[in-house]
């Protein structure tokens, strides 16, 4: 008994000694890098434990970046998440970030891509995969064929969304971050894949469920320790396989069709794409489109619900389109009449809605963009970015900067009026649709989806904002800038 007790004490003592040694090393490293790890010729390294910094970066990314810029007083600072990451702000950094050809968009998101499926789960060389994906993005969403495809699909989009809205009823409450996302998801699936898949509401719901499985599986732990066989990792792999099987099933159906049409899947088949390539394209577009278009559509309705002046302006603009391009004596439902408005009018004759979209993007869409340096010679001022390092730029550096946008948290679409821009040396930078080497190829499609939702909601409903208890909201809540997938309101 004594021997066992002594052995237990010795084992515990050794264990405690080992832990103490580890803590001593960690504390020494912390002190060294906090006080002695920087010099004027190097990018500033922030203090703190690597694991704590990484956890904060994944869980509260916006707060982590802003607080460290404020504390350090530097426009650049570095930290580690398996590899070096350089966070940057300021004009020089912004211009380099968006225009430097040595910075890879695809490689930037390989390590830090959150809930987006990892393309390596379908085995192909990553650089080739990225090049093929970009090729098809440009082919389908930028070239003239997109107009013809969109013209064909618009009546179906209006019909599908109108049916969804019918299910809301004529009165009651909705949560836009559920109901509006359902609309956006179905529309984006239609634009990115084919009618058969988008019309199958059971498959749409399953795809949504698999998406949320992927998002929830992208925990800080699973991203920091990708080699660990965790439940989250297994769920992610299974969800990716299930999504692949679902998309591949519909691709096979389209391959056997008597004639191809202008759906995205059919265009990819006609170009000789195989099933894994089509899967990557469809899922990439769906996930990017649902996140961004969903966020903006929800927040536009919130902002208009709290601003009767701009809501009335938007309603007048939509009614003018209906009066100009449809039969006002028609007994057809409003969704059918809206669907006959020509594409040129949706794109060029909605300046009020364009300003509302732009202002909502400016306030709400302030995520952190990522790149990876694949070049030997990338500098910001006199600071060199190491080859292989990741770089991060938060859009709020411009969009929420009162130097460019006075009272940046105030919803004011008129700030983009041409008259207010007169006399300025240059327009303030706007990054909502990308810029430089990476403009958003799906901008026109995204704008169309947003305008369809706004037009139908404002034409069909009168609404006001209420809180969780159903009482009128006293003030509009602020966006949770740390919520990288839906930007829910702060509680």
UniProtKB/TrEMBL annotation:
**InterPro entries per UniProt:** CYP450_sterol_14alpha_dmase (IPR050529), Cyt_P450 (IPR001128), Cyt_P450_E_grp-IV (IPR002403), Cyt_P450_sf (IPR036396)
- From the UniProt entry, list the residue stretches annotated as the region Disordered: 469-491
Q: Which SUPFAM superfamilies match?
A: Cytochrome P450
Q: Which key words are in the record?
A: Heme, Iron, Membrane, Metal-binding, Transmembrane, Transmembrane helix
In terms of Gene3D superfamilies, this protein maps to: Cytochrome P450 (1.10.630.10)
Q: Which cofactors are reported in the record for this sequence? A: heme
The UniProt entry's sequence similarity note says:
Belongs to the cytochrome P450 family.
Source organism per UniProt: Piloderma croceum (strain F 1598)
Q: Where is the composition biased (Basic and acidic residues)?
A: 472-491
Q: Where does heme bind?
A: 440
- Write down what this protein is called: Cytochrome P450
Q: Which residues form a coiled coil?
A: none
The Swiss-Prot or TrEMBL record annotates one GO molecular function as: monooxygenase activity
The regions listed as transmembrane in this protein's record are: 12-33, 281-304
- Taxonomic superkingdom: Eukaryota
């Amino acid at each position: 008994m004594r021997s066992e007790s002594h052995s237990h004490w010795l084992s515990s003592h050794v264990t405690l000694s080992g832990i103490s040694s580890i803590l001593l090393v960690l504390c020494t490293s912390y002190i060294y890098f906090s006080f002695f790890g920087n010099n004027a010729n190097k990018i500033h390294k922030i203090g703190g434990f690597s694991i704590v910094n990484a956890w904060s970066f994944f869980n509260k990314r916006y707060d982590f970046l802003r607080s460290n810029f404020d504390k350090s007083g530097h426009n650049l600072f570095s930290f580690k998440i398996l590899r070096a990451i350089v966070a940057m702000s300021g004009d020089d950094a912004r211009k380099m970030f968006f225009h430097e050809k040595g910075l890879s968009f695809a490689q930037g998101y390989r390590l830090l891509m959150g809930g987006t499926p990892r393309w390596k789960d379908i085995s192909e060389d990553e650089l080739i995969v990225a090049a093929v994906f970009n090729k098809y993005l440009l082919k389908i969403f930028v070239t003239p064929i997109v107009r013809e495809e969109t013209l064909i699909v618009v009546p179906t989009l209006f019909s599908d969304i109108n049916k969804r809205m019918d299910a809301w009823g004529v009165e009651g409450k909705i949560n836009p971050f559920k109901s509006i996302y359902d609309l956006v998801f179905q529309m984006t699936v239609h634009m990115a894949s084919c009618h058969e898949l988008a019309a199958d509401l059971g498959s749409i719901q399953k795809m949504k469920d698999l998406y949320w499985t992927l998002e929830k599986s992208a925990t800080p732990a699973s991203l920091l320790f990708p080699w660990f066989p965790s439940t989250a990792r297994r769920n992610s792999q299974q969800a990716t396989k299930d999504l692949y099987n679902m998309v591949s099933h519909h691709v096979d159906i389209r391959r056997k069709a008597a004639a191809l049409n202008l759906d995205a899947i059919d265009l990819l088949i006609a170009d000789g794409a195989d099933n894994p390539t089509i899967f990557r394209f469809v899922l990439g577009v769906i996930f990017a489109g649902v996140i961004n278009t969903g966020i903006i559509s929800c927040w536009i309705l919130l902002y208009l619900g709290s601003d009767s002046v701009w809501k009335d302006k938007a309603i007048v603009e939509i009614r003018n389109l209906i009066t100009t391009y449809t039969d006002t004596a028609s007994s057809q439902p409003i969704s059918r009449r809206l669907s006959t408005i020509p594409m040129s009018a949706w794109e060029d004759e909605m300046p009020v809605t364009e300003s509302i979209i732009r202002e909502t993007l400016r306030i709400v869409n302030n995520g952190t963009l990522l790149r990876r340096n694949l070049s030997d010679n990338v500098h910001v001022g006199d600071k060199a970015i190491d080859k292989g390092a990741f770089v991060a730029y938060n859009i709020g550096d411009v969009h929420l900067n009162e130097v460019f946008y006075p009272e940046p948290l105030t919803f004011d679409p008129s700030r983009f009026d041409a008259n207010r821009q007169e006399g300025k040396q240059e327009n303030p930078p706007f990054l909502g649709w990308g810029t430089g080497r990476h403009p958003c190829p799906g901008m026109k499609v995204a704008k169309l989806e947003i305008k369809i939702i706004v037009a139908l909601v404002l034409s069909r409903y009168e609404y006001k904002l209420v809180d969780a208890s159903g009482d009128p909201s006293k003030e509009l809540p602020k966006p949770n800038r740390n919520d990288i997938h839906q930007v829910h309101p702060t509680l």
